[in-house]
Write a structure and sequence with these properties.
Blueprint (H helix, E strand, L loop, with lengths): L8 H55 L29 E2 L2 E2 L5 E4 L13 E6 L11 E8 L5 E5 L13 E7 L9 E2 L11 E2 L15 E9 L13 E8 L12 E8 L9 E17 L9 E3 L7 H7 E12 L19 E6 L2 E6 L10 E9 L7
Antiparallel strand pairs: 1-2, 3-4, 4-11, 5-6, 5-10, 7-8, 7-9, 7-10, 11-12, 12-13, 13-14, 13-15, 15-18, 16-17
Amino acid sequence: MKKEGGFTLVELLITMVVFVLTIAAATGIFVPMLTQFKQQSKIAESNIENIIGLELLKRDIEHAGFGLPWNIPVGITYQEASSSPASNYNEPTVSGTTNPPRAILSGNNVNFTNVVNGSDYLVLKATNIAMSDASAKWTEVISKIDATGNKKTMVRSWGSSVDDLSTSERVIVLIPSKGENNQRILKTSDNDSTKFSVQFNQNFPADFAPPQGEVYLVYGVTPVADPIDTALRMPFNRADYYISKLNIPQKCASNTGVLRKAVLNHSGTFQGGIHQILDCVADMQVIFGRDTDNDGDVDNRTDDLSGLTAQQIREQVKDIRVYILAHEGQKDSNFTYCQDPPSCSDKTIYVGEQGLGRDFDLTTIPDWQNYRWKLDRIVVKPKNLRG
Protein backbone atom coordinates (compact mmCIF):
# COMPACT_ATOMS: atom_id res chain seq x y z
CA MET A 1 0.00 0.00 0.00
CA LYS A 2 1.27 3.57 -0.91
CA LYS A 3 2.13 5.70 2.11
CA GLU A 4 0.31 9.04 2.51
CA GLY A 5 2.72 12.06 2.14
CA GLY A 6 2.76 15.10 4.46
CA PHE A 7 4.80 17.55 6.55
CA THR A 8 5.87 17.10 10.09
CA LEU A 9 5.22 19.79 12.69
CA VAL A 10 8.93 20.61 12.79
CA GLU A 11 9.01 21.14 9.00
CA LEU A 12 6.00 23.46 9.18
CA LEU A 13 7.57 25.48 11.98
CA ILE A 14 10.84 25.83 10.05
CA THR A 15 8.94 26.95 6.94
CA MET A 16 6.97 29.53 8.89
CA VAL A 17 10.11 30.90 10.53
CA VAL A 18 11.83 31.24 7.14
CA PHE A 19 8.71 32.95 5.73
CA VAL A 20 8.49 35.41 8.62
CA LEU A 21 12.21 36.22 8.38
CA THR A 22 11.87 36.80 4.62
CA ILE A 23 8.89 39.15 5.10
CA ALA A 24 10.72 41.01 7.87
CA ALA A 25 13.80 41.44 5.69
CA ALA A 26 11.70 42.64 2.76
CA THR A 27 9.85 45.07 5.01
CA GLY A 28 13.12 46.41 6.37
CA ILE A 29 14.16 47.23 2.82
CA PHE A 30 10.77 48.36 1.51
CA VAL A 31 9.80 50.82 4.27
CA PRO A 32 12.96 52.99 3.94
CA MET A 33 12.56 52.87 0.16
CA LEU A 34 8.94 53.99 0.47
CA THR A 35 9.92 56.78 2.86
CA GLN A 36 12.69 57.93 0.52
CA PHE A 37 10.33 57.78 -2.46
CA LYS A 38 7.82 59.95 -0.60
CA GLN A 39 10.53 62.47 0.27
CA GLN A 40 11.81 62.65 -3.30
CA SER A 41 8.25 62.97 -4.64
CA LYS A 42 7.59 65.94 -2.36
CA ILE A 43 10.89 67.54 -3.38
CA ALA A 44 10.05 67.09 -7.08
CA GLU A 45 6.59 68.52 -6.47
CA SER A 46 8.10 71.54 -4.70
CA ASN A 47 10.57 72.12 -7.54
CA ILE A 48 7.82 72.08 -10.17
CA GLU A 49 5.65 74.47 -8.13
CA ASN A 50 8.70 76.67 -7.62
CA ILE A 51 9.43 76.96 -11.35
CA ILE A 52 5.82 77.77 -12.25
CA GLY A 53 5.29 80.16 -9.34
CA LEU A 54 8.47 82.16 -9.92
CA GLU A 55 7.70 82.42 -13.64
CA LEU A 56 4.24 83.82 -12.87
CA LEU A 57 5.72 86.36 -10.45
CA LYS A 58 8.36 87.33 -13.00
CA ARG A 59 5.75 87.80 -15.72
CA ASP A 60 3.58 89.99 -13.48
CA ILE A 61 6.53 92.22 -12.57
CA GLU A 62 7.38 92.58 -16.27
CA HIS A 63 3.78 93.64 -16.94
CA ALA A 64 3.63 96.25 -14.16
CA GLY A 65 2.57 99.55 -15.69
CA PHE A 66 0.81 98.06 -18.72
CA GLY A 67 -2.25 100.13 -19.67
CA LEU A 68 -1.87 102.57 -16.77
CA PRO A 69 -2.89 106.20 -17.27
CA TRP A 70 -0.08 108.66 -16.55
CA ASN A 71 -2.40 111.62 -16.12
CA ILE A 72 -5.73 111.70 -14.28
CA PRO A 73 -8.08 114.54 -15.34
CA VAL A 74 -8.93 117.07 -12.65
CA GLY A 75 -11.94 116.01 -10.61
CA ILE A 76 -11.62 112.28 -11.32
CA THR A 77 -11.46 110.09 -8.24
CA TYR A 78 -11.18 106.33 -7.97
CA GLN A 79 -10.90 103.81 -5.15
CA GLU A 80 -8.79 100.69 -4.64
CA ALA A 81 -8.75 98.39 -1.59
CA SER A 82 -11.49 98.99 0.96
CA SER A 83 -9.60 97.79 4.06
CA SER A 84 -6.09 97.47 5.49
CA PRO A 85 -3.43 96.33 5.03
CA ALA A 86 -4.13 96.47 1.28
CA SER A 87 -5.51 100.00 1.55
CA ASN A 88 -2.07 101.15 2.75
CA TYR A 89 -1.04 101.04 -0.91
CA ASN A 90 -3.99 102.95 -2.38
CA GLU A 91 -3.26 106.14 -4.30
CA PRO A 92 -4.13 109.29 -2.34
CA THR A 93 -6.73 111.81 -3.46
CA VAL A 94 -5.46 115.38 -3.36
CA SER A 95 -7.72 118.41 -3.87
CA GLY A 96 -10.50 116.31 -5.36
CA THR A 97 -8.37 114.33 -7.83
CA THR A 98 -6.82 110.91 -7.22
CA ASN A 99 -3.12 110.67 -8.05
CA PRO A 100 -2.03 108.63 -11.09
CA PRO A 101 -1.42 104.96 -10.21
CA ARG A 102 2.11 103.90 -9.27
CA ALA A 103 2.96 100.70 -11.12
CA ILE A 104 5.03 99.15 -8.31
CA LEU A 105 4.96 99.55 -4.53
CA SER A 106 6.07 97.46 -1.59
CA GLY A 107 5.80 97.24 2.16
CA ASN A 108 9.15 96.54 3.80
CA ASN A 109 9.40 94.02 6.68
CA VAL A 110 5.68 94.26 7.39
CA ASN A 111 3.83 93.30 10.54
CA PHE A 112 0.32 92.58 9.26
CA THR A 113 -2.31 90.19 10.60
CA ASN A 114 -2.14 86.78 8.85
CA VAL A 115 1.02 87.76 6.95
CA VAL A 116 4.42 86.24 7.86
CA ASN A 117 6.05 88.79 10.15
CA GLY A 118 9.07 90.64 8.75
CA SER A 119 8.44 89.66 5.13
CA ASP A 120 7.79 92.14 2.30
CA TYR A 121 4.44 92.96 0.67
CA LEU A 122 4.58 93.60 -3.11
CA VAL A 123 1.92 95.56 -5.02
CA LEU A 124 1.72 95.57 -8.84
CA LYS A 125 -0.68 97.64 -10.94
CA ALA A 126 -1.55 97.11 -14.62
CA THR A 127 -4.65 96.38 -16.67
CA ASN A 128 -3.40 92.91 -17.64
CA ILE A 129 -2.37 91.72 -14.17
CA ALA A 130 -5.77 90.19 -13.38
CA MET A 131 -6.63 86.60 -14.36
CA SER A 132 -9.56 87.36 -16.70
CA ASP A 133 -9.57 87.14 -20.50
CA ALA A 134 -10.74 90.75 -20.72
CA SER A 135 -7.67 92.08 -18.92
CA ALA A 136 -5.31 90.58 -21.49
CA LYS A 137 -6.78 92.54 -24.41
CA TRP A 138 -6.18 95.95 -25.94
CA THR A 139 -6.74 97.71 -29.24
CA GLU A 140 -6.78 101.09 -31.01
CA VAL A 141 -9.65 103.30 -32.11
CA ILE A 142 -9.37 105.96 -34.83
CA SER A 143 -11.79 108.50 -36.30
CA LYS A 144 -11.77 109.33 -40.00
CA ILE A 145 -14.01 111.10 -42.50
CA ASP A 146 -15.53 108.61 -44.94
CA ALA A 147 -16.31 109.13 -48.64
CA THR A 148 -19.67 110.69 -47.82
CA GLY A 149 -18.08 113.28 -45.57
CA ASN A 150 -19.28 111.73 -42.33
CA LYS A 151 -17.10 111.00 -39.33
CA LYS A 152 -16.48 107.28 -38.94
CA THR A 153 -14.93 105.58 -35.92
CA MET A 154 -12.99 102.39 -36.58
CA VAL A 155 -11.70 99.86 -34.04
CA ARG A 156 -8.65 97.82 -34.92
CA SER A 157 -9.34 94.08 -35.06
CA TRP A 158 -6.66 91.46 -34.49
CA GLY A 159 -8.66 88.84 -36.41
CA SER A 160 -9.01 86.50 -33.44
CA SER A 161 -11.81 86.08 -30.92
CA VAL A 162 -9.15 85.37 -28.30
CA ASP A 163 -7.46 88.75 -28.83
CA ASP A 164 -10.36 90.97 -29.91
CA LEU A 165 -12.36 92.85 -27.29
CA SER A 166 -16.07 92.04 -27.12
CA THR A 167 -19.27 93.69 -25.89
CA SER A 168 -19.04 91.57 -22.73
CA GLU A 169 -16.01 93.50 -21.49
CA ARG A 170 -15.39 96.82 -19.76
CA VAL A 171 -12.58 99.02 -21.02
CA ILE A 172 -10.72 102.24 -20.34
CA VAL A 173 -9.52 104.63 -23.04
CA LEU A 174 -6.17 106.44 -22.99
CA ILE A 175 -5.13 109.45 -25.04
CA PRO A 176 -1.52 108.64 -26.00
CA SER A 177 1.50 110.90 -25.68
CA LYS A 178 1.80 113.94 -27.89
CA GLY A 179 4.93 115.96 -28.52
CA GLU A 180 7.01 116.64 -25.44
CA ASN A 181 4.16 116.36 -22.92
CA ASN A 182 4.76 112.62 -22.60
CA GLN A 183 1.36 111.97 -21.05
CA ARG A 184 -1.06 109.06 -21.39
CA ILE A 185 -4.27 110.77 -20.33
CA LEU A 186 -7.26 108.85 -18.98
CA LYS A 187 -10.19 109.66 -21.30
CA THR A 188 -13.47 110.56 -19.67
CA SER A 189 -16.90 110.66 -21.27
CA ASP A 190 -17.76 113.79 -23.25
CA ASN A 191 -21.21 113.55 -21.64
CA ASP A 192 -20.11 112.88 -18.05
CA SER A 193 -16.69 114.10 -16.93
CA THR A 194 -16.71 111.75 -13.91
CA LYS A 195 -17.10 108.59 -16.02
CA PHE A 196 -13.79 106.93 -16.97
CA SER A 197 -14.88 103.51 -18.28
CA VAL A 198 -17.29 102.13 -20.85
CA GLN A 199 -18.62 98.82 -22.12
CA PHE A 200 -16.81 97.94 -25.32
CA ASN A 201 -18.63 98.13 -28.63
CA GLN A 202 -17.27 97.70 -32.14
CA ASN A 203 -19.31 100.80 -33.04
CA PHE A 204 -17.31 102.72 -30.50
CA PRO A 205 -19.28 104.99 -28.14
CA ALA A 206 -19.16 108.52 -29.52
CA ASP A 207 -18.48 110.09 -26.10
CA PHE A 208 -15.19 108.15 -25.86
CA ALA A 209 -14.16 108.37 -29.54
CA PRO A 210 -11.15 110.44 -30.67
CA PRO A 211 -11.30 113.55 -32.84
CA GLN A 212 -10.76 113.17 -36.58
CA GLY A 213 -7.34 111.77 -37.46
CA GLU A 214 -6.36 110.84 -33.90
CA VAL A 215 -5.80 107.40 -32.38
CA TYR A 216 -6.81 106.41 -28.85
CA LEU A 217 -5.71 103.28 -26.97
CA VAL A 218 -8.34 100.94 -25.52
CA TYR A 219 -7.53 98.47 -22.70
CA GLY A 220 -9.73 95.67 -21.39
CA VAL A 221 -10.13 95.62 -17.60
CA THR A 222 -12.96 93.30 -16.48
CA PRO A 223 -15.77 91.17 -17.93
CA VAL A 224 -19.23 92.75 -17.75
CA ALA A 225 -20.85 89.58 -16.38
CA ASP A 226 -18.52 89.32 -13.38
CA PRO A 227 -20.80 89.05 -10.30
CA ILE A 228 -18.32 90.97 -8.16
CA ASP A 229 -16.93 93.54 -10.61
CA THR A 230 -20.26 95.22 -11.37
CA ALA A 231 -18.53 98.49 -12.29
CA LEU A 232 -14.95 99.71 -12.54
CA ARG A 233 -13.73 100.96 -9.19
CA MET A 234 -10.35 101.97 -10.59
CA PRO A 235 -9.00 102.41 -14.15
CA PHE A 236 -6.67 99.40 -13.91
CA ASN A 237 -6.23 96.07 -12.13
CA ARG A 238 -4.04 95.35 -9.14
CA ALA A 239 -2.36 92.28 -7.63
CA ASP A 240 -0.78 92.04 -4.17
CA TYR A 241 1.89 89.41 -3.43
CA TYR A 242 2.42 88.41 0.21
CA ILE A 243 3.17 85.38 2.41
CA SER A 244 -0.07 84.28 4.04
CA LYS A 245 -0.24 82.38 7.33
CA LEU A 246 -3.71 80.98 6.53
CA ASN A 247 -4.49 77.46 5.24
CA ILE A 248 -0.92 76.19 5.23
CA PRO A 249 -0.30 72.68 3.77
CA GLN A 250 0.61 69.97 6.30
CA LYS A 251 4.01 69.43 4.69
CA CYS A 252 5.13 72.98 5.58
CA ALA A 253 7.22 73.83 8.62
CA SER A 254 5.68 75.84 11.43
CA ASN A 255 6.05 79.62 11.02
CA THR A 256 6.23 79.37 7.23
CA GLY A 257 3.40 80.38 4.92
CA VAL A 258 2.08 80.39 1.37
CA LEU A 259 3.11 83.04 -1.16
CA ARG A 260 -0.16 84.25 -2.62
CA LYS A 261 -1.21 86.49 -5.49
CA ALA A 262 -4.34 88.37 -4.46
CA VAL A 263 -6.13 90.14 -7.33
CA LEU A 264 -8.11 93.13 -6.11
CA ASN A 265 -11.65 93.09 -7.49
CA HIS A 266 -13.66 96.19 -8.35
CA SER A 267 -15.66 95.93 -5.16
CA GLY A 268 -12.49 96.69 -3.23
CA THR A 269 -11.84 93.19 -1.84
CA PHE A 270 -9.87 90.09 -2.82
CA GLN A 271 -12.96 87.85 -2.94
CA GLY A 272 -12.57 85.26 -5.68
CA GLY A 273 -9.08 86.44 -6.60
CA ILE A 274 -6.61 84.75 -4.23
CA HIS A 275 -4.19 82.36 -5.95
CA GLN A 276 -1.60 80.08 -4.34
CA ILE A 277 1.86 80.63 -5.86
CA LEU A 278 4.45 78.90 -3.62
CA ASP A 279 4.14 76.69 -0.52
CA CYS A 280 6.31 76.65 2.60
CA VAL A 281 7.78 80.16 2.24
CA ALA A 282 9.61 81.62 5.23
CA ASP A 283 10.54 85.04 3.84
CA MET A 284 10.33 87.36 0.81
CA GLN A 285 12.43 90.48 0.34
CA VAL A 286 12.08 92.93 -2.57
CA ILE A 287 14.86 95.28 -3.72
CA PHE A 288 14.64 97.93 -6.45
CA GLY A 289 17.45 99.15 -8.70
CA ARG A 290 17.11 102.87 -9.50
CA ASP A 291 18.72 105.23 -11.98
CA THR A 292 18.58 108.54 -10.12
CA ASP A 293 20.75 110.60 -12.50
CA ASN A 294 19.13 109.53 -15.79
CA ASP A 295 22.29 108.06 -17.32
CA GLY A 296 20.75 104.63 -17.93
CA ASP A 297 22.67 102.81 -15.19
CA VAL A 298 21.54 101.69 -11.75
CA ASP A 299 23.20 103.90 -9.13
CA ASN A 300 20.96 103.22 -6.15
CA ARG A 301 19.29 100.20 -4.58
CA THR A 302 16.40 100.56 -2.18
CA ASP A 303 13.68 98.52 -0.53
CA ASP A 304 11.19 101.39 -0.39
CA LEU A 305 9.51 103.33 -3.24
CA SER A 306 6.80 104.94 -1.10
CA GLY A 307 8.32 108.42 -1.42
CA LEU A 308 8.33 108.37 -5.24
CA THR A 309 5.62 109.58 -7.60
CA ALA A 310 4.24 107.47 -10.45
CA GLN A 311 6.44 109.40 -12.89
CA GLN A 312 9.58 108.91 -10.79
CA ILE A 313 8.93 105.17 -10.57
CA ARG A 314 8.51 104.99 -14.36
CA GLU A 315 11.71 106.93 -14.98
CA GLN A 316 13.96 105.52 -12.27
CA VAL A 317 13.17 101.85 -11.62
CA LYS A 318 15.37 99.70 -13.86
CA ASP A 319 15.21 96.30 -12.19
CA ILE A 320 13.44 94.50 -9.38
CA ARG A 321 15.06 91.71 -7.37
CA VAL A 322 12.92 89.34 -5.36
CA TYR A 323 14.46 86.93 -2.82
CA ILE A 324 12.33 84.05 -1.58
CA LEU A 325 13.36 81.65 1.20
CA ALA A 326 11.41 78.38 1.29
CA HIS A 327 11.99 74.70 1.98
CA GLU A 328 11.76 71.83 -0.50
CA GLY A 329 9.57 68.84 0.24
CA GLN A 330 8.53 67.99 3.78
CA LYS A 331 10.26 67.33 7.11
CA ASP A 332 12.92 64.62 6.91
CA SER A 333 14.10 63.34 10.29
CA ASN A 334 17.05 61.62 8.59
CA PHE A 335 18.28 64.89 7.04
CA THR A 336 20.29 67.67 8.69
CA TYR A 337 20.48 71.05 6.97
CA CYS A 338 23.96 72.57 6.81
CA GLN A 339 25.00 75.68 4.89
CA ASP A 340 28.55 76.05 6.24
CA PRO A 341 30.10 72.55 6.46
CA PRO A 342 31.76 71.02 8.31
CA SER A 343 30.81 73.03 11.42
CA CYS A 344 27.14 73.60 10.44
CA SER A 345 27.09 76.37 13.05
CA ASP A 346 25.39 79.08 10.97
CA LYS A 347 21.72 79.26 11.87
CA THR A 348 20.81 82.33 9.79
CA ILE A 349 20.32 82.95 6.07
CA TYR A 350 20.67 86.43 4.60
CA VAL A 351 17.66 87.15 2.41
CA GLY A 352 18.58 90.13 0.22
CA GLU A 353 21.78 91.93 -0.76
CA GLN A 354 23.97 94.98 -0.13
CA GLY A 355 22.59 95.58 3.34
CA LEU A 356 19.01 95.48 2.08
CA GLY A 357 16.85 92.62 3.31
CA ARG A 358 17.47 90.80 6.57
CA ASP A 359 19.18 87.93 8.36
CA PHE A 360 16.54 85.24 8.70
CA ASP A 361 16.89 83.29 11.95
CA LEU A 362 16.15 79.64 11.16
CA THR A 363 15.86 78.79 14.85
CA THR A 364 12.46 80.53 14.91
CA ILE A 365 11.19 77.46 13.04
CA PRO A 366 10.81 74.24 15.09
CA ASP A 367 13.02 71.37 13.81
CA TRP A 368 14.48 73.70 11.17
CA GLN A 369 17.47 71.36 10.71
CA ASN A 370 15.20 68.68 9.20
CA TYR A 371 14.11 70.79 6.22
CA ARG A 372 15.89 71.42 2.91
CA TRP A 373 16.10 75.22 2.76
CA LYS A 374 16.52 77.03 -0.54
CA LEU A 375 16.97 80.73 -1.34
CA ASP A 376 15.68 81.75 -4.78
CA ARG A 377 16.43 85.05 -6.49
CA ILE A 378 14.76 86.48 -9.56
CA VAL A 379 15.95 89.65 -11.30
CA VAL A 380 13.35 91.29 -13.52
CA LYS A 381 13.53 94.31 -15.80
CA PRO A 382 10.00 95.75 -15.99
CA LYS A 383 9.05 96.14 -19.64
CA ASN A 384 5.94 98.30 -19.41
CA LEU A 385 6.76 101.10 -16.99
CA ARG A 386 7.52 103.59 -19.71
CA GLY A 387 4.73 102.56 -22.08
